[in-house]
Structure prediction request, 538 residues.
Amino acid sequence: MESNIKMHTKNLDFFYGNFQALYNVSIEFVQNRVTALIGPSGCGKSTYLRCLNRMNDLISGIRVEGQAMLDSKDIYDPSIDVVTLRRRVGMVFQKPNPFPKSIFENIAYGLKVNGVKDKAKITEIVEKSLKQAAIWEEVKDRMNESALGLSGGQQQRLCIARALAVDPEVLLMDEPASALDPIATQKIEELITELSSKLTIIIVTHNMQQAARVSDRTAFFYMGKLIEVNDTDTLFTKPGLKQTEDYITGRFG
Amino acid sequence: MIKKGLFIQNTWFSIFKIAVLINGAALAVIVFFILSRGWRAISWEFLTQAPRDSMTAGGILPCIVGTVYLCLVTILVALPIGVASAIYLNEYATQGKLVRVIRLGINNLAGVPSIVFGLFGLAFFCIVLKMGVSVAAGGLTLGIMTLPVIIGASEEALKSVPNTYREASLAMGATKWQTIRKVVLPVAFPGIITGSILGISRAAGETAPIMYTGAVFFTPDLPTSIMDEVMALPYHIYVLATAGTNIEATRHLQYGTALVLIVLVLGMNLAAIILRSKMRKKLRI
Prediction:
């Protein structure tokens, strides 16, 4: 295993009020690799993902214990600026959620809120991001049309482009293809593989074939605990634990 | 069995339909009644002149101008405070006991009778703050009365903005304020504006809150500052119909004034509806 760890958590516990949703989760995310988080509904994989860019902060009454490190900085350290953290650790959501603005404005938004004013530069980055997300050809002639007029799959790639525009180092994806048809899903998967050459991707998925196809490493969650994490090939062919084997062979979940 | 179920369903649907018809009929009857009795009073002179001969002749220009001025002050008072309150309650405040108490207060404010607002305005704005009977005092009183409506409408509009928009914005490194200003408010704006106009058009027709605070029995002069007293359409109707010099002889003027008021209010409501559909189309939601 490579030594360049981009992000990792150590003994991470997470509580919604008195309810403990995560127990002692320690995972290392290797730079420029795709890590998939799998497990049955309610196992805590999405909660864990949302710990990594502190989206859980939006919920009142939550508590985090343990370490969550980006490079060598604890992202829960009081000195950390959450706004900067979220720019470095981007996120793509389960349902495509473009803003009710034009395609151009959707991508330019992240740049504008981060203080980029140079119009030529914004236009350039918008184009670059759309190309990276493999949607440029489909939208280049309709940049000023509403993003809500795009198909679901296009909207999701637009959301990926939007996340890429602020040049994040890590991209979190929360079941990004679960609301899409198989062809749109395939496009998203190809995109994930391509993007992993430039950034570190952590993806939550319900779909085990998807995890097997797109990820380098896979972490299996169950009941708020990390059961097993390993190279994807190893985890799917020679799972270390009976529980993992039962899940990936479809015996439960 | 199926037939019976169908019969019950049709009966209930008919009842709902009748309820809606009663609704529409009420509006139609009111408009027809006022229109049929008031249209003869409407003339160029009626709309552009001040009352003459102890208000038994002439026009109602001072009342129209007064009502418009009162509405403007109401908007200036209620819109910023109402929208700001709604943003605080819905976007910033931690949902807890305090917010529940504040909401309860706002809902109760909405239930306070308008005459109580009038007396409060008289005691506080006119006397304590020494504003006297003026557009300012009347507009402030109407503004406070309209606040709960605007807060309610704005909160509904903010709640209808999907959380996914907020999340998407925050996840890109936008601050909470940037998120509210650039994503949430534009989406909520049509709802806020429509609700606000409806609230203000309601205020435009109120008599009780302004009868001690802003409107007077008669003044031939148009207001030159917000510290001036004014005539107002609803109060003018009330005066002519109950305390005029010749109640019977001014009937047509009363209906004429009512017609102008109703056109003004319905016009504002219509504007609100058109504005909303236009803005919705622009947002494509």
In short: Chain A has a mean pLDDT of 92.
